[in-house]
Structure formats: C-alpha cells, structure tokens
Amino acid sequence: MRVLGIESSCDETAVAIYEQGKGIIAESVASQIETHAKFGGVVPEVASREHLKVLPSLTQQVLSAADCDWSSIDGIAVTAGPGLMGALLVGVTYARSVGLVNNIQVLPVHHMEGHLFAPGLSDEGLPNFPFMSLLVSGGHTLLIRVDGLGQYKVVGQTIDDAAGECFDKAARVLGLPYPGGPEIAKLAITGDAMQFKLPRPMLNKPNHNFSFSGLKTAVMYAAKGCENFNAQAKADLAAATEDAIADVLVKKAMKACQDECVSSLVIAGGVAANKTLREKLGQASVKHDVQVVVPDLAYCTDNAAMIAYAGFLRFMKNDKITDDWDANPRWKLTDLT
Ligand code: KG4
Ligand code: ZN
Fold first, then answer.
1. Residue 219 domain-assigned?
2. Which helix or strand (DSSP H or E) is residue 146 part of?
3. Which residues in 140-175 are b (16+ Cβ under 10 Å) and which e?
4. Is 144 in the same domain as 225?
5. What is the arithmetic mean of pLDDT over 2-24?
6. Is the minimum distance from the CB of 179 to ligand 1 under 6 angstroms?
7. Residue 109: nearest ligand to its CA?
8. Is residue 292 within 8 Å of residue 282, measured between CB atoms?
9. Residue 75 domain-assigned?
10. Is 270 in the pocket of ligand 1 (CB under 6 A)?
11. Does residue 124 sit within a domain?
12. Which of 110, 137, 173, 330 to mutate to test the pocket of ligand 1 (most atoms within 8 A of CB)?
C-alpha cells in the first residue's frame, strides 16, 4: 500500500509518500519560517496563503521524485487538526479535491498522532506497547501513555504555556528570532547555565503536570536584573533556560514512566530536536532503566512523513473510514479510538 501524506497545520507545507515494506520513498517540506520571522510568530492568514501557493507544485514534485502518478497512490492522509483553521482547510480541501478527481480514499490524521508515531520511521522503530510519550511542541506539552493505536491516556499536561512556547517567548526576551527553540539551543552552546538560577516549576508536585509561564517570567526578570546584559550574559541565560526546561521535562517524564510501570519513553514534537534534552534523557535512561526512543531530527519538527505513516497505520486498522469528517482546529487526541 502507498499513502500520500499532506501536512499544513501551521507553518510548514509538507508532502510525503509512505510505501508499505519500504518506508518513506519521497518527501518534501516547504518551510514558511522566513516569511513569519519578521512578524515574530506565525500569522495565520499569511500561513494559509503560503500553503495554497506551494501545495499543488510540492505534491507534483514529490510524486515525480517517487516515480509515481495518482494511479499508484492507494490512500491520502491529511492533517485535519489540531492547528490553525485556515491552514488546515487548505490541506484538507486540496486532499479532498485530488482524492475526488483520482478516486482515492482520503483519511483525516490527527497531527499529534503523527508526532506520536514518528519514531516508527527511524531504524530503531517504536518500542512495544505500552510506552510513555513526551509530546513537546509549540502548542503542546503532554505525557501520554500509549497502549495501542488510538489508545491514549493523558498522564500529564501543561497548565499554561507549552515547552516550545516557553522557548519561543524566552528567545524574544533574548532578542532572538522566531522560532526560538533552535536559536536558544545555538546560543546556549557558548553559555554557562550556572550563571543564572532559574526555577524548575511543578517539580515537587505529586502530579505529572507542567507549568512554563513562570519560567518565562523568570527569564524576563533575570534579563532585566542583569547589570551588564552583554553577549556572554545572553548566552548564559539561553543555556540556563534550556537547562531548566529540559530538567523539568526529563524528571517529569521519568516519574510518569515509574508511576505507570512503563519501561519505554518516546519523545516527539519540535522540542524533541533539542540536543540538551536528548542528552539529559540519555543519562536519565541509564539511571532509571527506561528505554528512550527519539525520532530522527527531521521527523521531530512538522513534516508529512509522520502523517503518511500514521495514515498508513490507520488505513491498516481500517475501522470505519468515512467521508463524514472535517478540519478541526481543536481536535483532541483522546477523542481518537
Ligand atoms: O512540532 P513543531 O514543529 O510544531 C508544532 O506543532 O508546534 O514544534 C515547534 C516548536 C517551536 O516552539 C520551536 O521553537 C521548537 O518546537 N523547537 C525547538 C527546537 N527545534 C524546534 N525547541 C528547542 N530546541 C530545538 N532544537
Ligand atoms: Zn507539530
């Protein structure tokens, strides 16, 4: 079976083809980061227009790279939510149109389910069920116990900002462009995290929830209170920010694994690309005897390979694929079965 995946939920337009037994045979991502960077964040209407501009040609390009035409595609998987409504509608409408014209079944994919199963595209593959997943992106910070495709239990979540949002907002304080996560990571390399003492919110709470808005405020006060906020001080604060976010994520994730008696942890979402987080998880993995599975770097941030793959898994599960669905910007992962 060959599945063509389409992703357009935020600021990346992406198309990929997954072939059963082979994996991803062609893919492309057109990033809008530069377009939005001058506004300091994603502008929804601009995002929709950009998706519309590039999606048809990107799809043709991926089909030719895979040496395919529509007749060799068995199913189309498209991100139907969560995300920006206008952006989602472009992908969904395009998918439905090409599906109708070429008589191909179109299936809605939950963006976070895509992230959740993205490590399945790496050589290591997904661990056996049940596993814990730490989903950390610009809009989500979730700890989810996964007992199977569509069997999700939210074990912990942020009560305010997402981890990626905290990176992005802290980056603004440091005068860095959007998206802030990779920029902070770059600057942190030359910084000394010990020069600033930042809080580790919610670490002593008995639940598995997160809170990052206080950390963002602490970064702001640290910058304001610094007498000589020069380039080195900025690098130090970037390192301290990265350290604080990674510490909280790692400790909470390990505790969730212990409490749920789960021996494997999968990380996913844009923040999963963070090197410090990956290193800290590697150390914690040995200490707590938890297997940590990380997706390939390219499959951490938004891409269509993960959508094509999750779509393939859904087509295989083959339960009740109907046309009775629509783009849903607030689609909940726990609504899936
Ligand atoms: O999953 P994603 O690409 O899009 C959403 O669905 O939100 O995640 C984007 C988020 C942004 O907040 C970005 O700053 C963060 O992931 N991010 C990173 C890194 N790369 C992307 N955060 C920390 N370190 C990185 N290397
Ligand atoms: Zn995402």
1. yes
2. strand 141-148
3. bbbbbbbeebbebeebbbbebbbbbbbbbbbbbbbe
4. yes
5. 97
6. yes
7. 2
8. yes
9. yes
10. yes
11. no
12. 137
Q: Which domain holds residue 223?
A: 129-294
* Residue bearing the CA closest to ligand 1, atom 23: 181
pLDDT score, position 37: 84
Q: Which two tokens stand for residue 222?
A: 């640290």
The pLDDT, as a whole number, for residue 171 is 96
Kindly list the protein residues that place their beta carbon closer than 5 angstroms to ligand 2, a single-atom ion. Answer: 137, 302
Task: Clarify whether residues 257 and 306 are in a common domain.
Answer: no
What pLDDT does residue 176 have? 95
Note the pLDDT tens digit of each residue in 184-197.
999 999 999 999 99
CA of 258 to the centre of ligand 1 (A): 27
316 in a domain, yes or no? yes
| 155 & 236 share domain | yes
Among protein residues, the one whose CA lies closest to atom 21 of ligand 1: 270
- The mean pLDDT value of the chain amounts to 96
Distance CA 261, CA 154 (A): 15
CA of 227 from ligand 1 middle (Å) equals 31
The pLDDT value recorded for residue 178 is 87
